[in-house]
TrEMBL record:
One of its GO terms (molecular function) is 3'-nucleotidase activity. Nucleotidase that shows phosphatase activity on nucleoside 5'-monophosphates. One of its GO terms (cellular component) is cytoplasm. It is found in: Cytoplasm. This is 5'-nucleotidase SurE. The gene is surE. HAMAP family: SurE (MF_00060). Belongs to the SurE nucleotidase family. Keywords: Cytoplasm, Hydrolase, Metal-binding, Nucleotide-binding. A divalent metal cation binds at residues 8-9, 43, 95. Binds 1 divalent metal cation per subunit.
């Protein structure tokens, strides 16, 4: 098996090392693992691509490349320039922090997996929820490290992938904020929504008098209701959410059809 991996925390991120170990286990001794990851952190860039300027890319070791671009750029580079053949699977992560709830909309980790799906390649995004119970572990990614390969193999062998659909499925996996030994099984969930103010802005003035704005995060450990990813993670489960890059509100189409006669 040939696997391409990327992330949004950067080529030197500890979560990428965790993902490399997962990918090597899944690929097997005869498989290949290729790394194409951002040279610098790209958190929050979502599905951004560097459409208006070129992306510099550097080979730093065999099958290991750093790109001055987004995770989606890295996937495009891997598929169309670097790998000798298309991969069987793209893995994105393991993100430092959860990509559950509304975080999905901002996540570069999700953006990398989404681009792979748009290119017709099976893709899984993996993220590690952090909290008090795993913050002091020697390896904060322990839950993902221990359970990641099994989750990926389960999805590869037992989950549907929607081949032939206009928008191919990809999967969003979040590991709970717990030690590996306390992590529970899979929970198939929908994307939740934290009913909090969400991201905000905090302004500061530099010593030179220039004004800068910092994006401020929000409380993450907020229950988002039954059957949702955040709630499953907070209950100790590994959440799995099937996703597509189709933003259509399908439930509204029938009700809105009456407007066609009004114009």
């Amino acid at each position: 098996m040939r696997i391409l991996i990327t992330n949004d925390d950067g080529i030197n991120a500890p979560g990428l090392k965790t993902l490399e170990a997962i990918a090597h286990t899944v690929a097997g001794p005869e498989g290949e693992v290729w790394v194409v990851a951002p040279a610098f952190e790209q958190s929050g860039v979502a599905h951004c691509i560097s459409y208006s300027h070129p992306t510099m890319i550097t080979e730093i070791a065999p099958r290991r490349w750093a790109a001055e671009g987004s995770p989606a750029d890295c996937v495009l580079a891997g598929l169309h320039d670097i790998l000798p053949q298309r991969p069987d699977l793209v893995l994105s992560g393991v993100n430092r922090g959860n990509n559950a709830g509304e975080n999905v909309m901002y996540s570069g980790t999700i953006g990398g997996a989404m681009e792979a799906a748009l290119q017709g390649v099976k893709a899984i995004a993996l993220s590690q929820f952090f909290g008090p119970q795993n913050a002091t572990l020697e390896d904060m990614f322990e839950s993902a490290a221990v359970h990641g390969a099994e989750v990926v193999n389960t999805l590869l062998t037992q989950a549907p992938w929607g081949e032939g659909a206009d928008y191919t499925l990809f999967y969003n996996v979040n590991f709970p904020p717990l030690p590996a030994s306390e992590t529970k099984g899979l929970a198939i969930c929908r994307q939740g929504r934290r009913k909090t103010p969400g991201f905000g802005i905090e302004g500061q003035v530099s010593p030179t008098g220039r004004r800068f704005l910092w994006v401020r995060g929000s409380e993450q450990s907020v229950d988002t209701g039954p059957g949702t990813d955040v709630t499953a993670n907070l209950a100790g489960h590994i959440s799995v959410t099937p996703m597509r890059a189709d933003l259509t509100a399908h439930d509204m189409l029938k009700g809105l059809s009456a407007l066609e006669k009004a114009v």
